[in-house]
Amino acid sequence: xxxxxxxxxxxxxxxxxxxxxxxxxxxxxxxxxxxxxxxxxxxxxxxxxxxxxxxxxxxxxxxxxxxxxxxxxxxxxxxxxxx
Length: 83
Known about the structure:
By secondary structure, this protein is mainly alpha-helical. It has helices at residues 3-7, 14-27, 33-44, 51-54, 57-69. The chain is globular, with a radius of gyration of 14 Å.
């Protein structure tokens, strides 16, 4: 059963969106939270402007942490050793 079949026909709520993103990240190796959110938005044919209202606080913090690690947004500056 694919992700699009599972959420097809259902109204996308914050909870369903968050669960779909978490499930996609957990089941597919190498998929980031940013990629998973974009993939779900594209599969549903939704506009990216709807993404802001679908983000739960926990999902938003995970995406912010990921984006900060990729230097896409300015975040807390901490010194990290390359390991």
